[in-house]
From TrEMBL, chain A:
This is Amino acid ABC transporter permease. Belongs to the binding-protein-dependent transport system permease family. HisMQ subfamily. It comes from the Bacteria. Residues 17-205 form the ABC transmembrane type-1 domain. It is a multi-pass membrane protein. CDD domains: TM_PBP2 (cd06261). SUPFAM superfamilies: MetI-like. Pfam families: BPD_transp_1. It comes from Marinomonas sargassi. Keywords: Amino-acid transport, Cell membrane, Membrane, Transmembrane, Transmembrane helix, Transport. The chain crosses the membrane at residues 20-43, 55-79, 85-105, 142-166, 186-204. It is found in: Cell inner membrane; Cell membrane.
UniProtKB/TrEMBL annotation, chain B:
Its main location: membrane. Pfam families: ABC_tran. CDD domains: ABC_HisP_GlnQ. It comes from Marinomonas sargassi. This is Amino acid ABC transporter ATP-binding protein. SMART domains: AAA. Belongs to the ABC transporter superfamily. Residues 4-238 form the ABC transporter domain. It is found in: Cell inner membrane. It is a peripheral membrane protein. The lineage of its organism: Bacteria, Pseudomonadati, Pseudomonadota, Gammaproteobacteria, Oceanospirillales. Keywords: Amino-acid transport, ATP-binding, Cell membrane, Membrane, Nucleotide-binding, Transport. One of its GO terms (molecular function) is ATP binding.
Length: 216, 242
């Protein structure tokens, strides 16, 4: 049996953290892109498109992320599509992230007074012009804090990818625990690393929120 | 041909019949005050005139163009009809100057220099030239409303629709806004205003339109109509306001 010094444990965990960060980034980028597209669909006011977005949000908010991962990973391979744990994790995290972001952003856009749309319309601005010059600049200010705050959920969500076999922080923690039989030490370290990843983001989100509240 | 022409306009919100056959004809340069109880359809009438709301029957013609609430139509209409709201609706993320320059730049495709010149002129007109670089939330309500007027004027509209534009203001700030309106009226712009300011309606207005239950109940010369109302409803309304 291989002996693991504390330094070995930390080194292995830090190496695995890279994958957690990478998976989080991929999920966040994928999630924001899809959420942008869904938000655009919703803003057209077309009722069919609205319906599509609603169903999408209901499905992915209304089921556990783990089940979505299982379906992406096992389900797709049963259907004959070979998919890596990495791809399945990104795919399901993208669904998850976008479904929540699109709702968060909708809330932000809805907080803008209807009068902003009407005043723009009365000045002769078209839909896209109003969106670009009036609505989005204000909505982005409001949305930044909750979006950064939500990224914490994405990071924590990546831990589930360990269950479908993707080797990231939690998975390596489990493996180290199996080798060392020191669950308290190993998982405390894992938790500390997650905390160090998440805390700056939730702190920054609060700073942004305050900044938004005092400024225009 | 009158500048704004409404013919038998009917408007429903679902089953609710809001406007019940409005006939109204407004000539260029007229100052029309629309009065009436809350809920009588005054705002809805204004919003139909500039296409913010669709109407279901009848016809509205502004400056020779039939009004529908099609997006394209509203944008064409914006060139001849300006609107001022009770709660200003300034763009809070833009400076006063940018608020006024926005539509000339984007809609009229003016150069930045041209648009700035227009904006400075219009702000001068409403007495706020020195506020060009301030943000709206640093201004008083009366000043914000004057910026909103400057913003509408920057599109050189033929008609200005004003929906209770002094109602949200502290009493001491009402005068400065009415004064701007008076200047505009003297310069010959067409004004259609929903208002509770009876003195303004009497002194500056050419005509008063009293709305009741979605209809034009009474209309006429302000001095005559306000001192000698014909219907019980108007008598009652004036009794409540004066
Ligand atoms: N968007 C709307 N949907 C349904 N009913 C409305 C809407 N806007 C106004 N109404 C109703 O139409 C009537 C007339 O409203 P409005 O034109 O705002 O009256 P006023 O400006 O004279 O107070 C009111 O009874 C109001 O409740
Ligand atoms: Mg009203």
């Amino acid at each position: 049996m291989i002996e693991f010094s504390n330094l070995d444990i930390i080194r292995n965990l830090l190496f695995a953290t890279q994958w957690t960060i990478l998976l989080s980034l991929a999920a966040f980028i994928g999630g924001t892109s899809v959420a942008l597209a869904l938000t655009a669909m919703r803003l057209t006011g077309n009722s069919a498109m609205n319906m599509v977005v609603r169903v999408y949000v209901e499905i992915f908010q209304g089921t556990p992320l783990l089940m979505q991962m299982f379906i992406c990973f096992f389900g797709l391979s049963i259907l004959g599509y070979e998919i890596s744990a990495w791809s399945a994790a990104i795919l399901s995290l993208t669904f998850f992230t976008s479904a929540f972001l699109v709702e968060i952003w909708r809330g932000c856009i809805d907080t803008l007074p209807k009068g902003q749309w009407e005043a723009s319309r009365c000045l002769g601005l078209g839909f896209l012009q109003t969106l670009r010059h009036i609505i989005l600049p204000q909505a982005i200010r409001v949305a930044t804090a909750p979006t950064v705050g939500f990224s914490v959920q994405v990071i924590k969500g990546t831990a589930l990818a360990s269950i479908i076999g993707f080797v990231e922080l939690t998975k390596v923690g489990t493996m180290l625990n199996n080798a060392t039989f020191e669950p308290f030490k190993v998982f405390s370290l894992v938790a500390i690393i997650y905390f160090l990843l998440c805390y700056p983001l939730s702190w920054y989100s609060k700073v942004l929120e305050k900044k938004f509240n005092v400024s225009r | 041909m009158s500048l704004v022409d409404l013919h038998q306009v009917h408007k429903y919100y679902g089953d609710f019949h809001v406007l019940k056959g409005i006939d109204l004809s407004i000539n260029a340069g007229e100052v029309i005050s629309i009065i009436g109880k809350s809920g009588s359809g005054k705002s809805t009438l204004l919003r139909c005139i500039n296409g913010l709301e669709a109407y279901q029957k009848g016809g509205i013609v502004v400056d020779g163009n039939e009004v529908t609430s099609e997006d394209v139509q509203v944008r064409r209409l914006a060139l001849s009809v300006g609107m001022i709201f009770q709660n200003f609706n300034l763009f809070p993320h833009k400076t006063v100057g940018e608020n006024v320059m926005l539509a000339p730049t984007i809609v009229l495709k003016k150069s930045k220099a041209e648009a700035e010149k227009i904006a400075r002129n219009m702000l001068e007109k409403v007495g706020l030239a020195e506020k060009f670089d301030n943000y709206p939330d640093t201004l008083s309500g009366g000043q914000q409303q004057r910026v909103a007027i400057a913003r509408a004027l920057a599109m050189s509209p033929k008609v200005l629709l004003c929906d209770e534009i002094t109602s949200a203001l502290d009493p001491e700030l009402v005068g400065e806004v009415l004064k701007v309106l008076e200047t505009l009226a003297e310069e010959g712009i067409t004004l259609i205003l929903v208002t509770h300011e009876m003195n303004f309606a009497r002194e500056v207005g050419n005509r008063v339109v009293f709305m009741h239950q979605g209809k034009v109940w009474e209309e006429g010369d302000p001095k005559v109509l306000l001192t000698n109302p014909q219907t019980d409803e108007l008598k009652q309304f004036l009794g409540a306001v004066l």
